[in-house]
Write a structure and sequence with these properties.
Elements: E1 2-4, E2 12-14, H1 30-34, E3 39-41, E4 45-51, E5 56-65, E6 71-78, E7 83-87, E8 91-92, E9 97-105, E10 111-121, E11 128-137
Parallel strand pairs: 4-11
Antiparallel strand pairs: 1-2, 3-5, 5-9, 6-8, 6-10, 7-9, 10-11
């Protein structure tokens, strides 16, 4: 967002705006509260070790619905444009597992890297899950 000012050196000042939207679970029925979807992540961290700059690192995070209702992946968001996300499915039935694939493009990056992927679901107890990708780019 830009803010117009009377500053002769910088007429328009940039103001970053971020929004954090959280789902309201207060309207759930007693039955829905007693039988929710439950997200479980096999491992929320992936260390890719050492790679050469310019390479692409891929990994599949495994998620599982251990609840009694369908688990819905509402959205996914990477911490950086260098990380692409591809959930295999957006709805997981009770007991079902699926993959959330990521590809980290190391082009233009060096040194220790730590990227995150946020997965937002309809699990009322754990609606936001953060996945971590880290390693060293040489």
């Amino acid at each position: 967002m830009g803010l117009k000012t009377n500053d002769p050196k910088l007429l328009v000042k940039t103001i970053p705006v971020n929004a954090y939207i959280e789902e309201d679970f207060s309207g759930l029925t007693e039955e829905e509260r007693a039988n929710p979807p439950v997200i479980k992540v096999e491992s929320s961290r992936f260390d890719f070790g050492k790679v050469t700059t310019g390479s692409k690192v891929s990994h599949d995070f495994i998620i599982r619905n251990e609840g009694t209702r369908d688990l819905v992946i509402r959205s996914t968001k990477a911490s950086c444009g260098c990380t692409a996300i591809k959930p295999e499915k957006s709805v997981l039935a009770p007991g079902e597992s699926s993959k959330v694939g990521i590809v980290f493009d190391t082009r233009g990056r060096t040194g220790k890297q730590h990227k995150t992927v946020t997965v937002i679901t309809n699990d009322p107890s754990n609606h936001t899950v953060t996945l971590h990708v880290e390693g060293i780019v040489e």
